[in-house]
Fold:
Amino acid sequence: MNPETERIIQLLSKRLVEPLSDSERKELEQWIGDNADRRLLADKLSDIDSLAENYRKRSLVNPERACKDMRRRINAGSFKKKALTGTFWIAASAAAFGMFWLFRHTSGNNTPQQSPEVILANQTLSIDSLSPGETKAYILDKGKKLAVGNGINAQGIAVERLRKKTAQAGPLVLEVPRGGEFIVVLEDSTKVWLNSASVLTYPENFNSTDRRVKISGEAYFLVAKDKENRPFFVECDGQEVKVYGTEFNVRSYPEEENVLTSLEKGSVSIAKKDGAGGELFLSPGKQAVFNKESGEASVKSVNIETVTGWRHGRFVFEDQTLQQIMDDLGRWYDFEYEFADPEIKKMVFMGSIPRYADFSTAMLILEKSGDIVFRTSGNKIIVDHKHI
Structure:
């Protein structure tokens, strides 16, 4: 940094906390002169409200995450250009006084992206009105949905409290709607985090031989060790996960072709529900990909932070298409969407978005990372190319 720049930074910094002396004001004015760009910059960097907003936006993006991802991919030798779509890195960098911008990475060319204006074609749905999900769920009782969720804390809600809300015999059915999340503690002290648009079916009390639940959607299980050594089973879309005191994530949304079982700690095995084909064992950091239609399964290594980011307050993307991202955002913020051009859905992104921010913040991050723009039409959000 040259001495003149350093001096101007000192003056602008001082002006934020105390008045400048007459000589200092004159020095700053001489630097600005008739230069309109310098005048605009000096005004912005002296506006407390503007700086606070820039800092807020900067804090929503984790630059270390993008750097770690890039280093890991380079070390693994897997940093490649995507054939048709390019890869977009959601990342942020800060200049002096909290100024920030996001970079798009494609074919080795990093270009700062200006924030496009959000075009509201129809006021039926407002982007600004889309808020993040909240703790809420329903217990099904003889065809009715009874709301639960009041008084929930980080420890979740115990199963016996849910039983009191329903007179229905048989297993409990807990549904977390779009725009919701929930934590439930089962009879054996197993804790289950449920993502949006998920349904958990489980007994009030497990039997003497095993512990069985069913899941549709996404859930993270912290399975309690059992003094009677009863195995814990999770059933979903033709797959059965057998658990031995562990922590893992299961994703099995009806509209997705695969069931994804990702192990963080301990040991699990997966198998077809009908018992054909034997068991496939996972070690920590591995993910089983079970195809619902063919019944075939494979195993791959994953970054477990990416898979379980939703449980820790972030959407973390690693080589995910924009369609996959929009599916997750749509469930969480509870909106429908469509692409103006089918090719847009193939864009691949990498990075993270804060889970509890308003959708306008998530939209801003995505827009700044790729040549896309969001607008509304009727009750849908339209994802389109940015037209310059």
About this structure: DSSP finds nine helices and 27 strands in the chain. Residues 76-123, 150-155 have pLDDT under 50 and may be disordered. The CA atoms of residues 11 and 28 lie 7 Å apart.
